Design the sequence.
């Protein structure tokens, strides 16, 4: 049995010892312990070193608000986590933990030299200390700060754990499974509403777990708790433990992080470690309770100094006495109960030091009965003890005068600066707070969401009032749900009611300038820092916060915000409400990145779309590239080929005989209805009225601003039916744009749009032998009337097909569309039939080269959203006789018709080198810096057909500069290039007529 | 029984259904009755409502949009074409656009809740909806308290299946 | 994540099913060629950028696929009302004074 464990006491399983390792040493704890409670049971208070000064620190709290006891935990390879709060981490077999921020060891830490250099590290030191000489920043200061800063070590391996996510819809979400939350749930569950009750702890009960002597509804607290939870389960209430509400967003959207496996000795394979719940609740009850405030005095961070309520929790919940002779320092009645419980459990209370002169007689009587000395009207002015408190320095205070000190020996100091409601989630909703002068704290005021706040979370104290409030909150919630419920009387006996006062720093007889009276333990911010910040001109609490980093630690000010505000307000000589509170930000407690990522990592990180022909490409060694959401075959290297060789071969083979290409990703939209042609005329720049059924045309789509949005070949299948193709990346966008016009501008048109992108698999055949290959496989096409730019519904290789004759290569070309399920069959049939012609599969890179040789643009590569049809040399695609189409009016806007717009041209380098896409172009390479850039290279390839590289570029006034030489400065020298037409290959289109 | 095809104790079962004819019907509400007559199928006016007869099913997806399922497409297309002059519409075959999953089992709502932000549990048996599963648009048909069909665009299917496999493994752990 | 009431589906659904579609009640001119350059510029680019009630368009993209209109408070992010495309701007003064 551990030295400080009380046999049979608390909620831990005394029959189930669990051993674990802390800093290399094996300790015994019990099932139900946290690392902190188990270490305390072994008499270990020293658990870490502080952030800035490397001061020895012990646990201050018993919950998720812990600022000090941050440890590294390891659950196996890749499963190291820094900054785990020892007060939250449950014991499990084989758990390995270590302290942080120390070297060479926790008990002797070289970094503690910072503590001696306290004056150097005061508020804003970051902004002052490292200012000069300027040259020191890169080489000296920054490396120093980088190595010294940070808490714990970052994990170095990929996280092998799984994380999960779930949406949850409910009528009522209750946050906090303490007495108020349970009371709310009891009345709400009876109404038939769907109720979810969550608590961050391993078990429900909240403050009841720390106060078993209270009687509720005639039963001891823990018996009432069991009965109530049984009732809730029976009523179908979803009880979620180890689940933290981390953020509260619009319209009652609450994020919950559920910890599933960290407490298990052997987690099931495939079990997620954590699950992020995204909850939508019609009503929310916030019953999060209150947080105890530390007192601010010199040495208040020494190991052994902790919150009184937490000591009570360690005692009653874990059966652990935090010391043999603890002293108590308080300004609130609640700490007396901690002292009484500890005294009753066998500790000798060194003294109760109360800052108040007047204390309730029943408390002083109860202390006297236990032989506890109560020192009323006293202050604490210091503590002693290197790695653990040995004594506290106490002085009487009379009329603001601090009297002579006495030293009181103790091995722990239990402090209570009073309680403040946990306002974090409420603040996330931008609910307003009101200052309550009586309790010196902020209370929730105006709500912005459909929520109730119950219990200690709105400043109530004592189990009776809190339970009653919980009942009322539950009733209010179900009434808001238009359900009815009945009040429930939950009488309380042995209640522990209480009040207190509030302080800034405690008064002292010592130099305030030398006091290390901590306000934010985790960020090592002292009262002196806050006053310095005010002296140095910080007036807003937000500035004070950032200058001192008070409240910016991972505990988000749970310990420090109110104390910091009181001190800043005092320094500013203002009332706290005039100074205001800084913003609490989500998450409520530190949350793993894995929980946020959920399933979206690895293979499921993001959507990858594949075509029906993808399996063939994969089996045939394709190298893939992502295009929009798709993965596409980039090139098909043969053994020994690099990309350059493979692409050159694919291009040559296509121009020499026939190439085959998976074009299934092209967007396809069926435009059908009596007004289809009118709709096409309005959407696209081109005229469509005279396009005969069975023919197709290149279509150009602009935005209303006149800039090119998309393009593609469009076939007219019948008078009322068009088969529109879009770019791969534009499919969804174009359909959305068309639907927008159709639904909101022209709802009178009788035309409908259907996405058929995935209905069809599309295979392109290009090359001089494409026709010969295809012809024998096709039925239902009159070849005498099927010239370039035709479309027919027919059969290909025995499959129902829509056959387009078109070309994106300059060769005779076809696109065969078959129902997607047949895509692979069509592809393999064409490959087989193409063998006599040495058919060559080519990928997107060869496709790009072949189209660039012909000067065909790629929207989004050669255009960037500021390119008009004129800029791109596509004036011919504009139906000039049409009265209107989307974007037409913009084509005559002054800046669109102005001279000097960037226009698409071809570029050929004089030295035959290949340009880099994105390279900037200048007219005079000898001009002074910064040079005027007149454009950039949009496309650049090695052309196998031409034997030299080709490029396209947008250049100011480019169309009027044909033949001129421009310059492209590159790191290795300036290239010279001549402006040419964009059509590099077969400019007269002879090959199409073959 | 080692040859057993399905593990009926599994929290969810996911099966791909064989393809059937699937069509998208778009028609103005005032011509709805004409098309319903022609197709021999009620076309419910309320979004999410379904109708079925003779192995044909219709699901209203929008104020002028119905998803039609049938064993064969040709008859329907011909029947609709006959009324086109008086009741102009669009009837587009999309049999190959989506693949249909059959989802069932006691944890099927949990499976859907991993990636569907809407309250799928609130979808009444016998109704359907178009919604989103992670980043994929899907059509859900609720055929029973714990039985759904989900139409997924073909190219999105691997992603959807990968996500479902993760959820299945998770549900099997009972955590 | 907001909840949005789709006036076509008559259901209140998660924002993830919807796509934002810009300011509402900016009708495309019947005859753009009749507009001056300044008028056309205003149609293209000038938006109210309201602080407070903003009339805007959404599309139930992963649902019924309809575009519709909404009045939303840009300060609180709260939707005041949603209504079908083509319907005129609702009078919100009545609603506000009732609150």
Sequence:
């Amino acid at each position: 049995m551990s030295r400080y464990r009380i046999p049979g006491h608390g909620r831990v399983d005394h029959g189930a010892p669990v051993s674990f390792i802390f800093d290399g040493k094996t300790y015994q704890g019990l099932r139900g312990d946290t690392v902190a409670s188990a270490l305390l049971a072994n008499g270990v208070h020293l658990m870490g070193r502080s952030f800035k000064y490397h001061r020895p620190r012990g646990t201050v709290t018993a919950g998720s608000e812990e600022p000090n006891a941050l440890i590294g935990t390891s659950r196996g390879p890749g499963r190291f986590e820094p900054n785990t709060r020892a007060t939250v981490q449950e014991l499990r077999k084989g758990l390995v933990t270590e302290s942080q921020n120390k070297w060479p060891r926790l008990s002797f830490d070289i970094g503690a030299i910072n503590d001696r250099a306290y004056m150097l590290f005061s508020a804003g030191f970051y902004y002052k200390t490292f200012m000069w000489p300027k040259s020191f920043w890169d080489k000296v200061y920054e490396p120093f700060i980088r190595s010294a800063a940070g808490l714990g070590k970052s994990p170095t391996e990929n996280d092998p754990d799984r994380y999960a996510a779930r949406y949850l819809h409910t009528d009522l979400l209750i946050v906090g499974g303490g007495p108020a939350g349970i009371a709310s749930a009891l009345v709400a569950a009876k109404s038939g509403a769907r109720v979810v009750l969550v608590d961050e702890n391993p078990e429900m009960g909240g403050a009841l777990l720390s106060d078993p002597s209270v009687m509720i509804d005639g039963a001891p607290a823990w018996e009432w708790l069991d009965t109530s939870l049984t009732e809730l389960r029976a009523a179908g209430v979803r009880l979620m433990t180890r689940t933290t509400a981390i953020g509260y967003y619009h319209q009652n959207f609450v994020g919950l992080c559920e910890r599933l496996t960290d407490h298990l000795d052997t987690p099931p394979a495939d079990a997620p470690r954590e699950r992020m719940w995204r909850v939508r609740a019609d009503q929310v009850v916030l019953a999060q309770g209150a947080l105890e405030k530390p007192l601010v005095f010199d040495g208040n961070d020494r190991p052994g100094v902790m919150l009184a309520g937490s000591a009570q929790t360690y005692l009653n919940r874990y059966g652990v006495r935090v010391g043999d002779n603890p002293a108590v320092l308080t300004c609130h009645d609640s700490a007396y109960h901690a002292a009484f419980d500890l005294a009753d459990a066998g500790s000798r209370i060194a003294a109760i030091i109360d800052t108040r002169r007047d204390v309730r007689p029943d408390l002083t009587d109860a202390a006297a009965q236990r032989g506890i000395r109560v020192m009323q009207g006293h202050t604490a002015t210091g503590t002693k003890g290197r790695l653990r408190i040995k004594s506290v320095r106490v002085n009487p205070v009379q009329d603001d005068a601090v009297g002579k000190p006495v030293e009181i020996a103790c091995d722990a100091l239990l402090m209570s600066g009073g309680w403040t409601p946990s306002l974090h989630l409420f603040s996330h909703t931008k609910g307003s707070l009101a200052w309550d002068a009586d309790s010196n704290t902020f209370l929730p005021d105006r709500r912005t969401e459909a929520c109730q706040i119950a219990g200690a979370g709105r400043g109530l104290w004592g189990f009776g009032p809190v339970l009653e409030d919980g009942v009322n909150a539950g009733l209010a919630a179900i009434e808001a749900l238009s359900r009815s419920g009945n009040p429930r009387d939950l009488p309380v006996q042995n209640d522990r009611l209480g009040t207190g006062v509030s302080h800034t720093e405690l008064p002292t007889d010592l130099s305030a300038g030398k006091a290390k009276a901590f306000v934010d333990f985790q960020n090592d911010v002292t009262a002196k820092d806050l006053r310095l910040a005010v002296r140095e001109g910080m007036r807003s609490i937000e500035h004070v916060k950032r200058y001192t980093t008070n409240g910016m630690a991972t505990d988000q000010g749970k310990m420090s915000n109110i104390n910091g505000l009181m001190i800043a307000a005092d320094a500013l000589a203002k009332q706290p409400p005039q100074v205001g509170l800084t913003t609490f930000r989500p998450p409520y407690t530190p949350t793993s990145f894995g929980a946020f990522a959920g399933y979206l990592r690895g293979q499921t990180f993001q959507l990858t779309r594949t075509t029906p022909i993808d399996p063939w490409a994969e089996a045939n060694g394709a190298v893939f590239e992502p295009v929009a959401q798709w993965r596409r075959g980039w090139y098909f290297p043969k053994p020994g080929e690099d990309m350059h060789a493979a692409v050159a071969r694919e291009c040559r083979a296509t121009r020499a005989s026939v190439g085959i290409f998976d074009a299934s990703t092209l967007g396809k939209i069926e435009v059908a209805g009596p007004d289809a042609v009118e709709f096409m005329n309005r959407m696209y720049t081109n005229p469509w009225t005279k396009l005969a059924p069975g023919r197709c045309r290149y279509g150009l789509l602009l935005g209303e601003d006149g800039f090119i949005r998309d393009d593609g070949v469009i076939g007219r299948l019948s008078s009322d039916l068009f088969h529109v193709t879009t770019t791969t990346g534009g499919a969804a966008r174009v359909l959305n744009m068309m639907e927008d016009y159709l639904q909101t501008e022209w709802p009178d048109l009788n035309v409908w749009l259907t996405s058929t992108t995935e209905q069809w698999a599309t295979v392109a055949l290009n090359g001089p032998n494409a026709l010969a290959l295809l012809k024998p496989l096709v039925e239902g096409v009159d070849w005498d009337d099927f010239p370039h730019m035709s479309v027919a519904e027919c059969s290909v290789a025995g499959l129902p097909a829509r056959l387009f004759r078109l070309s994106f290569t300059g060769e005779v070309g076809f696109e065969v569309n078959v129902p997607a399920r047949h895509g692979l069959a069509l592809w393999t049939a064409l490959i087989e039939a193409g063998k006599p012609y040495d058919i060559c599969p080519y990928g997107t890179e060869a496709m790009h080269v072949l189209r660039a040789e012909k000067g065909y643009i790629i929207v989004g590569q050669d255009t960037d959203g500021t390119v008009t049809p004129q800029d791109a040399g596509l004036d011919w695609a504009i139906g000039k006789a049409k009265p209107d189409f989307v974007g037409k009016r913009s084509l005559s806007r002054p800046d669109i018709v102005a001279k000097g717009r960037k226009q698409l041209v071809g570029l050929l380098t004089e030295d035959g080198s290949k340009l880099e896409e994105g390279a900037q172009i200048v007219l005079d390479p000898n001009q002074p810096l910064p040079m005027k850039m007149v454009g950039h290279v949009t496309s650049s390839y090695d052309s196998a057909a031409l034997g030299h590289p080709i490029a396209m570029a947008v250049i100011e006034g480019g169309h009027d500069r044909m033949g001129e030489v421009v310059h492209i400065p590159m790191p290795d020298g300036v290239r010279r290039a001549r402006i040419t037409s964009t059509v590099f290959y077969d400019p007269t289109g002879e090959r199409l007529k073959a | 029984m080692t040859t057993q095809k399905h593990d009926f104790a599994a929290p969810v079962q996911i099966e791909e259904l064989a393809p059937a004819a699937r069509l998208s019907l778009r028609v103005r509400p005032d011509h709805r009755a004409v098309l319903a007559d022609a197709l021999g199928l009620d076309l419910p006016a309320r979004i999410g409502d379904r109708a079925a007869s003779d192995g044909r099913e219709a699901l209203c997806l929008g104020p002028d949009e119905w998803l039609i399922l049938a064993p064969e497409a040709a008859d329907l297309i011909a029947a609709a074409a006959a009324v086109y002059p008086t009741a102009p519409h669009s009837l587009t075959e999309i049999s190959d656009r989506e693949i249909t999953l059959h989802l069932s089992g006691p944890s099927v709502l949990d499976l859907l809740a991993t990636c569907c932000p809407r309250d799928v549990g609130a979808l009444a048996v016998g109704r359907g909806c178009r919604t989103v599963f992670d980043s994929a648009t899907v059509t859900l048909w609720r055929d029973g308290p714990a039985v759904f069909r989900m139409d997924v665009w073909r190219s999105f299917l691997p992603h959807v299946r990968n996500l479902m496999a993760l959820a299945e493994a998770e549900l099997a752990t009972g955590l | 994540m907001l909840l949005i009431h789709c006036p076509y589906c008559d259901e209140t659904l998660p924002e993830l099913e919807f796509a934002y579609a810009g300011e509402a009640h900016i009708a495309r001119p019947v005859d753009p060629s009749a507009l001056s350059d300044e008028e056309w510029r205003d149609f293209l680019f000038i938006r109210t950028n309201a602080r407070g009630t903003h009339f805007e368009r959404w599309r139930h993209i992963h649902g019924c696929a309809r575009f519709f209109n909404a009045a939303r408070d840009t300060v609180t992010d709260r939707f005041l009302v949603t209504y079908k495309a083509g319907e005129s701007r609702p009078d919100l003064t009545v609603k506000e004074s009732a609150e």
Remarks:
- Chain B has two domains: 13-17+97-173, 21-93.
- Helices of chain B lie at 32-39, 74-83, 108-113, 157-173.
- DSSP finds four helices and ten strands in chain B.
